[in-house]
Amino acid sequence: MLGTDTTEHDSLAARRRSRRTIWALVALGCVAYVAGLALDRPLVGVALYWLCCVAFLGYAAVTDTDPYDERDREVQAKAAGSTLTVAAFVLIAGAPGMAALEAANAHAAPAWFWGAMFALAGVFGVFALGTTYHERRT
Predict the structure, then answer these.
(1) Domain ranges of the chain
(2) Contact 99/113 with Cβ under 8 angstroms?
(3) Which residues contact 88 (CB under 8 A, 6 or more apart)?
(4) CA distance 119 to 132
(5) Whole-model pTM?
(6) How far apart are CA 70 and CA 43, in angstroms?
(7) What is the CA radius of gyration of the chain?
(8) For residues 34 and 46, what is the distance between their CA atoms, to the nearest angstrom?
(9) pLDDT in tens, 105-138
(10) Which of 59, 65, 132, 138 could hold 18 in an S-S bridge, CB 3.0 to 4.6 Å?
(11) Quick check: 36 and 43 in contact, CB under 8 A?
């Protein structure tokens, strides 16, 4: 048939197939984990989740196709920057604001609030270390 026989490697199709496989493994792992929790079998859910993670890493190791191109990486970099900007605003405004409200006995922070603030601070710490590493590496 015309247009179906190619000897060339179709990189766009391979990239799409690779991306679909990756996201299918991620989705399957998440669904298996939630199903394990819902069926009161958390260890089975976690085991299936990790099995999908291992399959994901195995697939990434054996495939010769990079699922993302330069445009995808640029979009991801912009999205990561936007996410960090929003998280920075929440951390910079939220932590001192809640500390002031607690000091004035006007409002008590929920138990999860300070954990979330420390998690955001940790994300920024890891980001700073990663940035430093990659700046010195290049």
Answers:
(1) 11-62, 70-137
(2) no
(3) 124
(4) 20
(5) 0.61
(6) 39
(7) 22
(8) 9
(9) 999 999 899 999 999 999 999 999 999 999 999 7
(10) 65
(11) yes
Non-local (6+) Cβ contacts of 37 within 8 A are 45
The DSSP annotation for 54-76 comes to HHHHHHHHH----S--HHHHHHH
φ and ψ at 69, to 5 degrees? Answer: -105, -170
Three-state DSSP at 27 gives helix
Burial 94-125 (b: 16+ CB within 10 A, else e): bbeebeeeeeeeeeebeeeeeeebeebeeeee
Neighbours of 33 (CB within 10 A): 19
pLDDT in tens, 49-71: 999 999 999 998 898 888 888 88
| Closest CA relative to residue 95, chosen from 82, 113, 110 | 113
Cα separation, 105 vs 95, whole angstroms: 15
